[in-house]
Amino acid sequence: MKHRMILLAAVALVAQLAVGFAATTHAGASVGPADDRQQTWPTGWWTYTGVTASTLSTLVTKDGARITSLQVDNPSVPTFTAVLVQNTGPYASGWWWYFGQTVAQVSALLTANSARLISASPYATPGGVRLAVVMVPNSGGNQKAWWWFVGTTSFLSTQLSTNHARMIEVDPWPGSSSTYLGIMVDNTGTNATGWWWYVHASVPTVSSLLSSNHARLVDLSRNGDGTFNVVMYSNTGVRWYWYVGSSPSAAVRRAGQQGERIIDAASYLVGGVKRFAVIEAQNTNVLSEAIWRIIGPTIPDGAYGFYLKQVGGPVLAGVDQSSQYEPASALKVLYHAVVIHKESLGLAHDGDTIVYHYNAADPTNPGICPDNFATTASTSLINADQQMMWKSDNRMTRGIVERFGKTTMLQYGHALGLTSTVIRHNIGCPTATTHNLTTLVDLGKVYEAFANGTITTNPYWQAQFASRMLNQSNYPGFKNGTCPVVSQEAAKLGRTPATASAFCNDLTWIAKGGSYQYAGSFPYTVSWDGVSLTGVPFYTTGVVTMQYYIFGEYVDGTTITSKAQANSINQARGLEYQAAMRQIFDEALRTWPPS
To answer: Which domain holds residue 340?
Structure first.
């Protein structure tokens, strides 16, 4: 299914397959920890498929998670598809899971545990239908009147009506095309929400019903004929998606990319190949969501991400900040850190000789692949470092790497905590099979190591680290783009233009970006990124105290079809930084006295 958000559309499913209730108290609906599909608090999540019971148990423990959706893939082993959520914060709950159980055995376990079901997967075995189930304590925030039944749609509809209930999950019963297992909960008072359920519906029909009901999916299961059984709830603004026909890895990757988490997954085979149907729900905080809405809609394919972290403090926003991508020249900040660290220890010196390769026909071109040219010349280490960071000179970069060695670069990165960085080519010389890899988190650790004194505590070399990079003093684009944002926030707070100007003059900033374009004409694929460290002045007891923030963003493997599209994406990339820092500028300006 094409990547899209399901919010609009229009038809109705045949009446005998549908039951629906619309409640007037949706806004006050009571949601407990176990009702994870109705929650959008950012949290950790995982989706696994084809795993055995022992493997799944190990993963649950490792992830500090609990299972929220369970399906049996292969009854003979058995293996499972499972959706997990981190069992902390608003999602924290006691829980149990079982498989190979009869209906009577599940009933006994529910009684013994004083529990209610949140997921059930019936499957056929030589001994009859068995169930894999997930249950939670029916107490505290999880407590609800609830029921579970096996029967026809007519029977289930009667139970829903009699009990004033709503469906939370519906699954086909093995061996019958008209029998289903339904889990339902009370839908009255503060627990009420508008909802609908449908069985044996095609993908276009489900999409149409979602639109006409202004709803979002909370549950789906697939029938042998390729149709779906679904439960949908009224949606008043949650960003969400559903997809069918994805590979499991693509489904998980896409959800993370979109700042979403998978809340339900159905696995099935098409031509012997496993496919996923998934439901996603928003998994971003307010700031992450604001930044995502700037960049997400502009990216047609490939990957993208962003990351905002306070040095020595929390991650404030992020999407896919831990995913590997091709950083191009942004990786040079690691090489720069090695140079400064070595020089601060007296193990290297400004005047050391650096041998570099250049194009004799174009000897000053810094953007070449230096591996393509045998002609060499030499320069000083300080000049090579400056040109590498100021002009992103690939010639000097190779010379510096050869001076210290790729192994040294990686070892130093590991010492700083970089765990996902791989160096496969000299920067400027990528091939389809030799991409360098890193993450925004890894690159952020280099900037944080500078800010906290890990690279060097020597004031002279700290100053050299910053002055040899693009910074607030030598790159006019920083203040040209940032000072207007400061002025806007200052005006909102009633601070004078003079205060805004003084604040902006106190800002510090260092950065390194990267840019690969893999073909000469449209359409071409790009790897673009940038990571920066911003010092923000907070006014405390008459003294300006700097707090530092890392911001990084990337676009990788994205196809560019026109100049206008390239401009649109790059404009969004610039706006990401402004959106990330605006709230921080506001908080800092509040500490400045009115003037």
So the answer is: 304-353+365-590
